[in-house]
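The protein record filed here.
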Amino acid sequence: MKTLTITRPDDWHLHVRNGAILKTVLPHTARQFARAIIMPNLKPPVTTVTQALAYREEILQAIPAGIDFTPLMTLYLTGSTTVAEIKKAAGSDPVYAFKLYPAGATTNSDSGVADIKAIFPLLAEMEKHNIPLLIHGEVTDVHCDIFDRERVFVDTSLTDIVDNFPGLRVVVEHVTTTEAVQFVQAASNQVAATITPQHLLFNRNALLAGGIRPHYYCLPILKREPHRLALVAAATSGNPKFFLGTDSAPHTTLLKETSCGCAGCYSAHAALELYAEAFEHADALDKLEGFASFYGADFYHLPRNTGTVTLEKSTWKIPASYGENETLITPLKAGEEVGWKIQSIHEAN
């Protein structure tokens, strides 16, 4: 196959930060994706509709001229979130979901939820108003092995949430394990999952074999090869419960290459090309359009895009970095080759 044309895709899990980094990274996403679910874990976190609208305006100002891109905003769920704020979010067109971070699970999650059951009244209100809950699915017990944190969360907290709120739409973000895939497959159609390019392409050897490679460090952490294969099988299965969410998470090179580096892989620079590689390796390029362009929009009850993106089978080398000085970012697969390249984008038919 020399070229592949698909409906213009969306990114259903994205970090763009704010300030100078936002201006550096947003063009990478906006040029290929029509929409993106924007994560709210800023400092301070985006916990109210008013904050979300202000953040949305900052994002809109950073979109390059002539590019059609829509940010879909989320609110950071905390123990202090009120029923009134949930009702306000339900009536706000730019706000599409709430994000649940277990406190301390990942970057800027210190304001997250310490006791899942304590927020059950909030989840009931979200269920009532049909607002999706997006979950970072890891326990934070210090005695739990980091490679087991997702599995334990699935067995405990996630099961409790889904059992108690069967009408709540739930997205299990960036699934990384066979157990999470199986849970989503067995659950009702109210439950879906996003899958990142790094978890489709790499296992934990990419992070640890031959030396520590900090730009492959993300949370949930890369897992063993059998888990990667389970993710590939899910993504390429045509099951509409699984769709694209890059979890592209920019951190400066300085903050990644330190004695205690930040968690997060920056993939927005080549997101669609990386997914194409993963699907090609699985001999499933015919399944990429559904995963990237249809299933997420359907789950969020949004119309599918009408534009197209054409990829060509062409090898190119990813730059060593993007940005400069205080915004210098090392991307995923920096200095390495990718076998697919975006040839053209048509924003609408």
Notes: The chain has a mean pLDDT of 96.
